[in-house]
Design a protein that fits this description.
The complex is a heterodimer of chains A (337) and B (289). By secondary structure, chain A is mainly α. Chain A has one domain: ABC transporter involved in vitamin B12 uptake, BtuC (Orthogonal Bundle). Helices cover 73% and strands 2% of the residues of chain A. The longest helix of chain A has 27 residues. Chain B has one domain. In chain B, 73% of the residues lie in helices and 2% in strands. The radius of gyration of chain B is 19 Å and the shape is globular. Chain B starts with a helix and ends in a 13-residue tail after the last helix. Classes of the chains: A mainly alpha (337), B mainly alpha (289).
């Protein structure tokens, strides 16, 4: 029942995403903002893998996002990399970053993991900020998007959006398969109770490390594509403010759900775009969004919606009255195989 | 040597700031599992309030005493209304909430006091330089060093020698047990949070005179303070002091030779220390002492 609902929602969403280049101009939305939604949704998906399915808090994930963007930008600027190879090298850059800081993070869990990740994530910000000769420092670096011509169409505007949509769909499918695979189930087991998972024979450190690497790769892909989309990489991409934004998108939409991070990114990016052009003090409503989301609906839009559906069906739901904060909205039947 | 000596002193004072901020952070973190991303904003608030008081004609010492207390009131109000519901829940929620608060705070300061910094100079009595025998040093910085030392000693005394300090340390270990034994843990949480904000407030006013005052000035101290908590060991005051000094020294000495690497050196130090001691220098999770 629930599965079918999710499938229908995903199908509708995909059709809508296909027609965005036709719809967006009519509602005065720039196509670049739509591309941005897709890419931040991808980043939020990466964060969701860690928050929603593994139970560790990557508040420093922007490091991987920015490493992707800088990886793509630097390789284009200095090595004249092509379109796909620059993206690949961007992903590689964030994988290397994750490999470097991962072993430190894995030693601790809970808030200590979060604290370590905040601190270590910021290293890359300072590297980009300080090594002005290579990275352009505070001003960031401009680079050109490598020209791609494939079967007669050039990769810009709408075509670029479709290319990003293709990436997004592929990543989405991989993500869906991943969280339903035995590997994904093991991650959920770690999230529910790591000690128990370890006693059952799972090498939890290795599982969390692999999840971190996958998350970094997805986030690096999102960052590299975002860099190519705006043809610019700047230090604030790596900053913890950006991490906070991406984590909020995940929670706002609903962590531990497939569609949640996309909805979160959609609301956040478009809302941010409208607000920041409308008022100079847009950070105040943005901060208020954090407060409202956390206190008002901690399960996110999808999680709250599923609760409502559940309550309507069963008439009474204990869970709906007492929201369970630790575990998110996966149905009981699915968490324990 | 003569040109390094002032750098070492500056490094130690910077380190004392990191230590004081880190102690406030780990007080709040250890008792309630909240990583307070708005800690820097409270420091900035105290700085701006002191600036406003001095601009209104009060003297510096009055501002130094009153601004942290006003900040404390704001902080406790925030804690009671917004942060309290999130205690002992998944840390992501309190992290996001305090992060949102810091965004609101930053923009509010910008609206009231402007985008650029405001000049907030130390009192005239402290503006001269003091001879230390082999070198001269600004009196204000010596005063800061003394004040921060007093804060740390008072805090250690509070935690180690008073009944509330005892309860606080007990609550860090087992908050349910101490509630069952009849301590009002909600009050304890409030005092604990207030204490963290109060010392952040004093440090904020002191820092405003030395490091400048702008909407983001408190946040600039936040990241080194996180590193200090990690390096010193989470939940150890002595560790926070040692870690803060070590980081302050590292930053100021590296800045002298390789300016571009000043922040990065701090992270290299952190990585090395974590390799040797995974729990930090004096890490004993959750136990203050």
């Amino acid at each position: 029942m629930r599965k079918r609902g999710g499938l229908i929602a995903t199908a509708i969403l995909l059709v809508l995403l296909l027609f965005v280049p036709q719809i967006a101009p009519r509602i005065h939305l720039a196509i670049s903002v739509c591309t941005e939604v897709l890419l931040f949704a991808m980043a939020a998906m990466a964060v969701n893998l860690l928050i929603g399915y593994t139970g560790v808090l990557p508040f420093g994930n922007a490091a991987f996002f920015g490493l992707g963007a800088y990886g793509a930008g630097l390789t284009i600027e200095y090595w004249h990399a092509g379109f796909l190879s620059s993206i690949g090298l961007g992903v590689l850059a964030s994988l290397i970053g994750a490999l470097a800081i991962g072993p430190f993070l894995l030693r601790r869990r809970g808030i200590y993991f979060a604290l370590l990740m905040i601190a270590f994530g910021q290293v890359f910000y300072f590297i980009a900020y300080r090594f002005t000769d290579i990275t352009g420092g505070e001003d960031g670096m401009n680079f050109s998007r490598p020209a791609v011509e494939w079967l007669g169409w050039q990769l810009k505007d709408e075509n670029f959006y479709y290319a990003m949509l293709a990436f997004f769909v592929v990543v989405g499918i991989v993500f869906y398969i991943l969280v339903r695979s035995p590997f994904g189930r093991s991650l959920l087991a770690i999230k529910e109770n790591e000690t128990r998972a370890r006693y059952l024979g799972l090498n939890t450190d290795r599982f969390i490390f692999i999840a971190l690497l996958i998350s970094a790769a997805i986030e690096g892909l999102a960052g590299a594509c975002y860099g190519l989309s705006i043809m610019f990489a700047y230090p604030l991409m790596l900053d913890w403010h950006n991490s906070g934004n991406i984590v909020l998108m995940t929670i706002l939409g609903g962590s531990g759900t497939i569609l949640g991070p996309f909805l979160g990114a959609l609301i956040f990016v478009i809302g941010n775009d409208i607000l920041s052009t409308a008022v100079p003090w847009w950070q105040i409503p943005l901060g208020a969004l954090f407060v409202v989301c956390v206190l008002g609906f901690p399960k996110g839009i999808v999680g709250t919606f599923l609760d409502l559906v559940e309550r309507r069906r069963s008439g009474f739901s204990y869970e709906a009255r007492e929201p369970e904060f630790q575990s998110t909205s996966l149905p009981k039947g699915e968490t324990t195989p | 040597m003569a040109h390094i000596a002032p750098e070492i002193f500056n490094g130690l004072i910077l380190g004392a700031f990191y230590a004081v901020v880190a102690i406030g952070l780990s007080l709040i973190m250890n008792l309630t599992g909240t990583i307070n991303m708005a800690h820097g904003s409270f420091m900035t608030l105290a700085g701006y309030l002191a600036f406003a008081l001095v601009s209104a004609g009060t003297n510096y010492w009055f501002a130094l005493a009153v601004a942290p207390i006003l900040t404390l009131i704001v902080g406790v109000l925030m804690e009671r209304t917004l942060i309290r519901p999130l205690y002992h829940r998944d840390p992501v929620y309190s992290l996001l909430l305090t992060f949102g608060l810091s965004l609101i705070a930053e923009e509010t300061y910008r609206l009231i006091w402007g985008d650029n910094g405001v000049p907030f100079s130390p009192p005239v009595a402290l503006q001269n330089a003091v001879s230390l025998g082999f070198t001269y040093f600004p009196a204000y910085r010596l005063f800061i060093a003394g004040a921060l030392l007093v804060i740390i000693i008072a805090l250690v005394f509070f935690l180690q020698r008073t009944r509330y300090g005892l309860r606080l340390r007990a609550a860090v270990q087992d908050h349910e047990m101490i509630a069952a034994l009849g301590t009002n843990t909600q009050l304890l949480y409030m005092i604990n949070f207030g204490l963290g904000i109060l010392i952040a407030g004093v440090a904020g006013v002191l820092a405003a005179g030395m490091l400048g005052l702008n909407p983001q000035s408190g946040n600039a101290l936040l990241m080194p303070a996180f590193v200090t908590v990690i390096v010193g060991g989470m939940g150890s005051i002595f560790g926070a002091v040692a870690g803060g000094m070590l980081i302050g020294l590292t930053i100021s000495i590296v800045t002298l030779y390789i300016p571009a690497a000043s922040e990065i050196a701090m992270y290299i130090l952190m990585a090395v220390i974590l390799l040797v001691r995974p729990r930090g220098l004096f890490g004993e999770e959750g136990i203050f002492g």
